[in-house]
Amino acid sequence: MLDSLVTSKTRIKLLLKFFSHTNSGYLRSLAKEFEESTNSVRVELNRLTEAGLLLSEEDGKTKVYKANQGHPFFQEIKNMVSKFLGLDDLMERIVKRMGDVEKAYIVGDYAKGIDSGTVQMILIGNNLDQEYLDFIRQKTFEKVNRQVEVDILDSDPGDVQGILIFGK
């Protein structure tokens, strides 16, 4: 869906990153995360910043980017990204009913902006309801026609490569 509207794969990855949650990032970490050259990421960051969709601020010698929540199209883009990911309802239900979810990440292809048909997630928390997770996986497949694979971790390893969609 998004790839038919937006022709740059790097731009899609950036939109998914910044508009799926209150994520921020800097050039080198984004290039590494997306497995793209720093130049291609820089070009797209500049375009999105010039369009007013992203804000940048200096953090020492590093320029940090984040979504411009004051942009007139912020909510519309955020909604499109949520629908593309097909996880807006799923995440809300999981967080409310799973127990003590500290963080939730989308990893794998969807985090890279690729619709492979399988959504990979990592949930971080203790005493999470595995039965409910099995139930919601089936419901998600029925609703959005995507397989959901979920790994549950007790604590954050600190090096999860993906899009943080819940938690801080």
TrEMBL record:
Q: What is this protein called?
A: ArsR family transcriptional regulator
Tell me which SUPFAM superfamilies the record gives: Winged helix' DNA-binding domain
Highest taxon listed in the record's lineage: Bacteria
Q: Set out the biological process GO terms recorded for this chain's protein.
A: regulation of DNA-templated transcription
InterPro entries, alphabetically?
ArsR-like_HTH (IPR011991), WH-like_DNA-bd_sf (IPR036388), WH_DNA-bd_sf (IPR036390)
